[in-house]
UniProtKB/TrEMBL annotation:
<keyword id="KW-1133">Transmembrane helix</keyword>
<keyword id="KW-0472">Membrane</keyword>
<feature type="transmembrane region" description="Helical">
    <location>
        <begin position="43"/>
        <end position="63"/>
    </location>
</feature>
<feature type="transmembrane region" description="Helical">
    <location>
        <begin position="20"/>
        <end position="37"/>
    </location>
</feature>
<feature type="transmembrane region" description="Helical">
    <location>
        <begin position="136"/>
        <end position="163"/>
    </location>
</feature>
<feature type="transmembrane region" description="Helical">
    <location>
        <begin position="75"/>
        <end position="96"/>
    </location>
</feature>
<dbReference type="Pfam" id="PF13593">
    <property type="entry name" value="SBF_like"/>
</dbReference>
<feature type="transmembrane region" description="Helical">
    <location>
        <begin position="175"/>
        <end position="194"/>
    </location>
</feature>
<feature type="transmembrane region" description="Helical">
    <location>
        <begin position="302"/>
        <end position="323"/>
    </location>
</feature>
<feature type="transmembrane region" description="Helical">
    <location>
        <begin position="236"/>
        <end position="262"/>
    </location>
</feature>
<feature type="transmembrane region" description="Helical">
    <location>
        <begin position="108"/>
        <end position="129"/>
    </location>
</feature>
<dbReference type="InterPro" id="IPR016833">
    <property type="entry name" value="Put_Na-Bile_cotransptr"/>
</dbReference>
<dbReference type="InterPro" id="IPR038770">
    <property type="entry name" value="Na+/solute_symporter_sf"/>
</dbReference>
<keyword id="KW-0812">Transmembrane</keyword>
<protein>
    <submittedName>
        <fullName>Bile acid:sodium symporter</fullName>
    </submittedName>
</protein>
């Protein structure tokens, strides 16, 4: 039991709720008090684009092909995770539309739909699977595949889900091309250069974390600056924030429950069930924020990513508790 508690504490310190959340709150506060505008906003936009390209380049250089090959044998598991991520979530997003529009503005509901179209997380899905003693190799493969597939599927889903609701999203083809140019090409370049720089990247993982979090913070600052300049906090009240949390909790609970039920009905082992639950129920802030910058107009970006930011923190806290429960159950058998 002490080892389980220590592992839980380490994961909470790594992913949750402390340093990065505080930095996000500071950046949102800074953007609310001193939003970037004019030439400053343009400069921040250029720096952010470069940081995002560097982020995906380093992710490409970091991704181990051996780990992917090791997990590929569990194709049924991967299909189920991808269906949960890119089929179940969009359906749930459409089904909760009446409730969401009763609690949220149309722009915030667009943010919910965008959230539903995003790929799974990588780092936290793998970490929570490991903590819960699930199938880690399959989690590495499934989460990585989700992010790679999401480069193509997410803009298509966004086009299908929001094109008739808002002019914020461009055409699906243009969105895919933009994603390919700004995110996929740097990723492929990193993969191609991995034989030469992969070991160096592996030895400097803290650098990747800095680029990862730094690029998100830059996008959040520029997005909220534009949103504040457009009157964001006159449109979003405490009641609206509570509504976002309610919608996020409902989506997460349904995704977790359905993933658990389906994995058991299909006869997966407990280790595979854990992997399916954690990989199939999460949405990636690290991929979502850069994608939102590519897919949506700057004036709507703050409202679009606000549901994602709240969902991200909620999923980490809930999944940390679930991972602890899975680990206890495992140790008791």
């Amino acid at each position: 039991m002490p080892s389980i508690y220590a592992a839980f504490t380490r994961q909470m310190q790594r992913f949750s709720v402390d340093s990065f959340t505080i930095m996000l709150l500071i950046v949102v506060t800074l953007a609310s008090i001193a939003p970037a505008s004019g030439a400053t906003a343009v400069a921040f936009g250029h720096v952010t684009t470069i940081a995002i390209g560097l982020l995906f380049f380093l992710h490409g250089a970091k991704l181990s092909r051996e780990a992917l090959v090791e997990g590929l044998t569990h194709w049924r598991l991967h299909v189920l995770v991808l269906c949960s991520t890119f089929v179940l979530f969009p359906i749930l997003g459409l089904l909760i539309k009446p409730l969401a529009l009763a609690m949220l503005t149309p722009d915030l509901y667009l943010g919910v739909l965008f959230l539903c179209a995003l790929p799974s997380t990588v780092q936290s899905s793998i970490a929570f699977t490991s903590m819960a003693r699930g199938n880690v190799a399959a989690a590495v493969c499934s989460a990585s595949a989700s992010n790679f597939v999401g480069i193509f599927i997410t803009p298509l889903l966004v086009g299908l889900l929001v094109a008739r609701t808002s002019s914020a999203g461009g055409s699906s083809l243009d969105s895919v091309l933009s994603i390919v140019e700004q995110l996929l090409l740097p990723f492929i370049a990193g993969q191609l250069l991995r034989p030469w720089i992969g070991r160096w990247v592996d030895r400097h993982k803290p650098m990747l974390k800095i680029v990862d979090q730094g690029s998100i913070l830059l996008v959040v600052y520029t997005a909220f600056s534009d949103a504040v300049n457009e009157g964001l906090w006159h449109k979003v009240s405490l009641g609206t924030l509570a509504g976002i949390l309610v919608i996020s909790a409902l989506l997460l609970a349904l995704a977790l429950g359905i993933a658990t039920l389906v994995s058991r009905r299909l006869g997966f082992s407990k280790e595979d069930e854990i992997t399916i639950v954690f990989c199939g129920s999460k949405k990636s802030l690290a991929s979502g924020v850069p994608m939102a910058k590519v897919l949506f107009a700057p004036t709507s970006l703050g409202m679009i990513i606000l549901p994602l930011m709240l969902f991200h923190q909620l999923q980490l806290m809930v999944c940390a508790v679930l991972a602890q429960r899975f680990a206890r159950r495992k140790s008791a058998t």
